[in-house]
Amino acid sequence: MKAGTKKAGATKVRTKKSGAQKSGIATPAAKTLTSASAEKQLASFITKFEPAHQSLIRSVRKVLRKRLPTANEVVYDNYNFFVIGYCATERSSDCIVSIAAAANGVSLSFYYGAGVPDPHKLLLGSGNQNRFIRLQSVKVLSDPRVEALIAAAVAQAKTPLPGSGNRKLIIRSVARKQRQRRKAKH
Q1: Is the pTM of this model over 0.70?
Q2: Rounded Cα gap, residues 98 and 173, in angstroms
Q3: Coil vs helix vs strand at 9
Q4: In Å, how far from its chain's centre is CA 19?
Q5: Tens-digit pLDDT profile for residues 12-69
Q6: Contact, 130 vs 113, CB < 8 A?
């Protein structure tokens, strides 16, 4: 196990030990979280958002947990975004899709979306790797075109999802300094 990592049951917390002050990553002493305390911490991240976004994040998470039952949930509460990645392993580089939320909305992000076949041109973004779909409602996930994008992302994953087993909820990092999670009121 890497330095700065402790494991207990199905939950892991990783803290950065070097360069953390520059990156703004919280650096508490490494601590072990139970599944219940990890869920509680995740819930606290979600409550930072406007009620409509909170509800959408929870609904999308429920659908993705059902759709990808063996995928690990890797959570980042970073400066720009709150992210729940659905990964084949505990590494974010094995992320297939993720929920990405900011004050301006919630998206379904495809980590390697630039390579996902998109005949209906639903994916947004122009970078070398990531693509996303803005989510106005959880109903977007039941659109057959979006289901096909998710299936294609799963099929092209470098590391396939496990065929069986239990997922892990992994709180990977929490930034001390963050952008507002709610829109500023004028």
Answers
A1: yes
A2: 15
A3: coil
A4: 23
A5: 444 333 333 334 444 333 344 667 888 998 999 999 999 999 999 999 999 999 999 9
A6: yes
